[in-house]
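Q: What does the assembled structure look like for these inputs?
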Amino acid sequence: GNSVTQMEGPVTLSEEAFLTINCTYTATGYPSLFWYVQYPGEGLQLLLKATKADDKGSNKGFEATYRKETTSFHLEKGSVQVSDSAVYFCALSVNYGQNFVFGPGTRLSVLP
Amino acid sequence: IAGITQAPTSQILAAGRRMTLRCTQDMRHNAMYWYRQDLGLGLRLIHYSNTAGTTGKGEVPDGYSVSRANTDDFPLTLASAVPSQTSVYFCASSVSRGPYEQYFGPGTRLTVT
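A:
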């Protein structure tokens, strides 16, 4: 079946630190990959996506590259801010929308 | 409005009562979804609809029903609420072709006492 594994949190960083949140997946077929962000008390927002191998999704300083050979889609940001404190979800979709699979989420806290 | 709206924002409900959570989107997306989010369990799909007039069961459908009379609305009904249905409920929508990225509403926080 399809599944997504993320590094366990919480992750606590100081402002301006480098961020990596690991995500690996298993999927039957050729998935599209996503990162979502959830700020406290809000719904999930699409942060970035990639639809084929070696694609790099980027948004708001965050990046992730679709690595088919390692079945990974790690999220990175060069310099985090306090406002980046949130829960980050890695996700994939295959064939149909109801086959959307979310990882468990990783909570990030950025301290000033 | 732009995107997805959900109502109510929060609700406290006595066990055994009936409750309908409302969801409306204005993006003309064919597909819509209902999830529940529980601490430690992540997001779980309750029901989905790939197009108006059709619905399907997700991972945790028991105790919930949905209807899809038109493209924009996708209400979720709890016929007789139980405390285990205490959760945050999110409605989402997507186009019906790849990559099926989903867009989420702000959520409804439901407490069943």
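The radius of gyration of chain A is 13 Å.
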